Predict the 3D structure of the following.
Amino acid sequence: MEVIYTGLRQTPEMIAEAALQEDVDVVGISMLSGAHMTIFPRVLKLLRERGLDDVLLTGGGIMSYDDTEELKKIGVGQLFTPGAPMSAIVDYIRAWIEARDAVKVVA
């Protein structure tokens, strides 16, 4: 996997544009500010507007279970809270990509 780090304090518009320009498979956001209920839905909307419907939006940070469930309902992928093992995150992303690619082959 190749990781493209865009730096701190990126706007949702900057994140979505970078995803488009770099032709990414996954966007991961680390959210420690408490703005996850604003940022994740906005990034997801912007990704969809750019035709990036097959890009996974995932991430982690300090967020409640209820918030993570609400974000999953709108289409955000698995969200990881502090203490999540890196292996769990990597395994999730690999499994998601394999499942997505399997659907593309069948379609």
